[in-house]
């Protein structure tokens, strides 16, 4: 389980997370939704120690993130950041290989190479493996970063807006892949999503954030409802049930 207790984050005098306590269930797919600026990325960066929290605690698989050694943490949790910036004069294969660093410490074994090949395969990047990152389209590059994260083969996987830049076919195949990670490999996956319909159809659990608070939390049946989504986004949202799935309609 990933658990936060009363996690607070302030920037100067502004509080962007207000004592957030969540329990993210083990071996499930959890979606974090909410408007821009709600605190979704901030919460993920507290859990993954990309930034220090002002107060509170977070544990991942029982490890307190504040005082666990970085290499130990990197073996249990991998994160895709919202903004990936790295040297673009790297090939896709090299980037994905970096995902093995916590295991290989720079000396790749046959097992590490197997993980790299599998991640390239999962993300349909085989044909692009020897291309430099600056020779890829936005969606291809996004898939390369996700391959790097999956290649780390950690029990906990945090992905901040993994569907950015992906076309609808790649977005759907990404969500299916994440479900397989949960069902076949027992991973605990947390994804920040803006497309509520993907959250509705693929997530087991949804955390809806607004203004630095958890506004609603529960399964899609509980969260994907007209009144919940209309209040969350401050606009009229209508949820329709189509072939057993709740899909929302929000065009004026
Ligand atoms: N370094 C910073 N200094 C001051 N304020 C910050 C800083 N980083 C983030 N914030 C503020 O914290 C709040 C939460 O930001 P966060 O990035 O967590 O939002 P988000 O829910 O991920 O939004 P988005 O959907 O746009 O990615 C925002 O109001 C943002 O302006
Ligand atoms: Mg964000």
TrEMBL record:
GO terms for molecular function: ATP binding. This is ATP-binding cassette domain-containing protein. Keywords: ATP-binding, Cell membrane, Ion transport, Iron, Iron transport, Membrane, Nucleotide-binding, Transport. It comes from Comamonas avium. It is found in: Cell membrane. InterPro entries: AAA+_ATPase, ABC_transporter-like_ATP-bd, P-loop_NTPase, Siderophore_ABC-ATPase. Residues 2-236 form the ABC transporter domain. It is a peripheral membrane protein. Its main location: membrane. It holds the Pfam family ABC_tran. PANTHER family: IRON(3+)-HYDROXAMATE IMPORT ATP-BINDING PROTEIN FHUC, PETROBACTIN IMPORT ATP-BINDING PROTEIN YCLP. CDD domains: ABC_Iron-Siderophores_B12_Hemin (cd03214).
